[in-house]
Design brief:
This protein is α+β, with helices and mostly antiparallel strands. It folds into two domains: about 70 residues, no CATH class; about 60 residues, Nucleic acid-binding proteins (OB fold (Dihydrolipoamide Acetyltransferase, E2P)). The protein is about 45% helix and about 20% strand. It has a five-stranded mixed beta barrel. Helix 1 runs antiparallel to helix 2 and helix 2 packs across helix 3. It is rod-shaped.
Amino acid sequence: MIDYPGLYWLIIGVTLGLLELAVPGLVLFFFAVGSLITALITTFFPQLAIVWQLLIFIITSLAFLALLRGVLMRRFFAPSELDADSMDSGEDVVHAKPGAHATVTLAINPPATGQIKYGGTFWGATAAVPVEVGSVVSIIRQKNLVMEVEPLQNS
């Protein structure tokens, strides 16, 4: 039997590194780094007690996790500005163009939600004032799958 603790830590580190590719979250990566550092240390000090090996593994893994995870997440997984705007406002991926016109297909009686037809699709709609079926409305904004609309003013 091989009595080389560095090899065991190396195998653990490579395994954790490969598992990081399958599991999202960028956590196992830091335990892989801690394992590889422990493998390096036990290469130079092969008679190091298992308690000290585990302590080195835990301290280095948690230290790297605490210090670098946030930095790496922002660096490699930062959402684009469009995605960030959508997440902040609660808007759905399909964006309605403010000012676009739609037709009411189910009366809107505040605070209840009615229905409009916009872009060939039916959408839930809310308005500050009641709007009758068949009226043409202007879209103010979209929040998820509900459009906020206002009736067009007859000039």
